[in-house]
Design a protein that fits this description.
The protein is α/β, with parallel strands linked by helices. 55% of the residues lie in helices and 8% in strands. The protein is built from 25 helices and eight strands. It is elongated, with a radius of gyration of 33 Å. The termini are far apart.
């Protein structure tokens, strides 16, 4: 015999079996007992909470020959026949049958009397997927239905159903099922299946399922398929493709402590696991929401969770709202990009900078949690980072020097004219992100080989620096000529410009420096001489990278 999944095996067969939805069940049973059957119902609510199951039970209960207090007797011909095989109970999936022709077919067939039952019942699942013309066609049938017909319209998005349709139906709102009820049902299934897993895992499944019984039973089915008596929380998170709570806290710790390297490390880790970044955004949004609730209410969460939340309450509400805004923006942008990892890195770096700026402005002391492991950087890695930062600083100064050395108004005018071609790349997947960065830049200095751009804020500058090599190639492509680009803030540019004018007036000459030669020279006298010369021209304070 073919294997039957647990959610199908333990799907409720009568009202008595339904978990949750007590109000809905009570009203439907009373309507059957008192023979007050409406001609149309709307079952609205989240997925997996019992809408379709109750629709099938109700469609048999109204036709049951000997109903017991409004529930199925389970003995008559109607009760013993499978709903899926019952010719007078018609189930339609509106997601794949959403046209006006399908509804017209219903209008034609509904006039015919039931073949063997008292009522002909039409269950239309995901009814919100019907087209406007299909809804209009359905409207006439709902206005004047034959006495032998009942419609049950199930939906997860009742807001998409026209009000003219809703007003002609009895509407039932289905609620999410509480974790306690889900736990109880899962334990019942485990007992019937003669299986055992820890209470901790059962609680986790109930929490993850977010009020959906079907999702909970499906997840239980997958976990039991592991045939492992020592199921861990990590096993559960791997199955559903989500980050663990520990990983979530590690990311938050890294953001809070301004540890950009750690943030990038965990993003790499998430990428390797194949976890959907949209899921990560949703979990972070939910946690930050909980922080805001905890800060502004009393005893909303249990004590254990409030101890965790308390570690992340170092900032004003405005900071958390800004973090949420960035996460919402990231969620929207993830749907458009082909390179999710880069986009996530940029947004998370922006969040780190947001925290760092707020910390500087408010003089907060961020307490690092000792309960959660944070990746330690070795001395070698730190030295390598310092050396890399030093080289980037030197490269920036060389490019600025070379641009100023060959600065030419005519060349700049020609460059600006060619640069207008950037608009052609704004809507191409390959270049739109680079074009978006450059559209916010000011063109300050242009020579035959170098360009200095400036930005109003640090965030655009950070994006530019992160993509400097690609921007070099992109600018060269736009202008049909090879360029080396560099970006600084407007504040930095104003200082450099002032220094440049002073140097010219004092007779200090700028000389072209071979960038490739500099890159090939490591910590020798020539390299130090170049750096000293540049420092004397620009001053160490003007071009730095934190």
């Amino acid at each position: 015999m073919a294997y039957i999944s647990l959610y199908r095996k333990y799907r409720p067969k009568k009202f008595e079996d339904v978990v949750g939805q007590e109000v809905v069940v009570k009203i439907l049973k009373n309507s059957i007992k008192e023979n007050k059957i409406a001609h149309a119902y709307i079952f609205a609510g989240p997925r997996g909470v019992g809408k379709t199951s109750i629709a099938k039970i109700f469609s048999k209960a109204v036709n049951c020959l000997n109903p017991i207090y409004g529930d199925l007797c389970e003995n008559c011909d109607v009760c013993s026949n499978d709903t899926d095989n019952e010719i007078d109970i018609i189930e339609i999936d509106a997601a794949s049958n959403n046209g006006v022709d399908e509804i017209r077919e219903i209008r034609n067939s509904i006039k015919l009397m039931p073949t063997r039952l008292k009522y002909k019942v039409y269950i239309i699942d995901e009814v919100h997927m019907l087209s406007i013309s299909a809804f209009n066609a359905l409207l006439k049938t709902l206005e004047e239905p034959p006495s032998h017909a009942i419609f049950i319209l199930a939906t997860t998005e009742v807001n998409k159903i026209p009000s003219t349709v809703i007003s002609r139906c009895q509407k039932f709102d289905f609620e999410k099922i509480t974790p306690k009820l889900i736990e109880k049902q899962l334990n019942k299934i485990l007992e019937l299946e003669n299986k055992t897993i820890s209470d901790k895992i059962v609680k986790l499944i109930a929490k993850i399922s977010d009020g959906g019984m079907r999702d909970a039973i499906n997840l239980l089915d997958q976990i039991l398929s592991l045939n492992n008596s020592n199921i861990t929380t990590d096993d559960v998170y791997k199955i559903i493709g989500e980050i663990t709570d520990e990983e979530l806290f590690e990311i938050l710790n890294s953001i809070y402590n301004g540890n950009m390297a750690n943030v990038l490390y965990y993003i790499e880790k998430i990428t390797d696991k194949g976890i959907n970044f949209d899921v990560v955004c949703n979990k972070l949004q939910s946690f930050i929401r909980d922080i805001l609730i905890y800060k502004n209410t009393e005893k909303y969460f249990d004590n254990e969770y409030e101890i965790i939340l308390d570690k992340y309450c170092n900032y004003d509400d405005e900071v958390y709202l800004k973090l949420c805004h960035e996460l919402f923006s990231l969620s929207n942008e993830l749907k458009k990009t082909t390179n999710q990892k880069n986009l996530v890195e940029i947004y998370f770096i922006k969040m780190v900078l947001l925290i760092l700026n707020n910390t500087k402005n408010n003089d907060y002391n961020i307490t690092k949690s000792t309960d959660i492991p944070i990746k330690k950087e070795t001395d070698d890695i730190k030295k390598a980072k310092e050396e890399n930062t030093k080289n980037i600083n030197l490269m920036k100064k060389i490019r600025i020097n070379n641009a100023l050395f060959g600065a030419n108004k005519k060349v700049k005018t020609e460059f600006i004219e060619k640069f207008k071609n950037i608009d052609e790349y704004m809507f191409t997947k390959k270049f739109n992100s680079l074009a978006s960065i450059l559209k916010k830049a000011n063109i300050e200095v242009v020579s035959d080989k170098n360009v200095i751009f400036s930005f109003e804020n640090d965030f655009e500058l950070m994006l530019f620096d992160k993509n400097n090599k690609q921007i070099d190639d992109f600018v060269s492509k736009i202008c049909n000529q090879e360029y080396k680009t560099i970006a600084i803030t407007i504040v930095e540019w104003n200082k450099i410009k002032k220094e440049y004018i002073k140097n010219i007036n004092d007779g200090i000459k700028y000389e072209y420096i071979d960038e490739k030669q500099k890159i090939n020279i490591k910590n020798n006298k020539n390299n130090n001489d170049i750096e000293n010369t540049l420092n004397s021209i620009f001053g160490e304070k003007y071009i730095t990278i934190d």
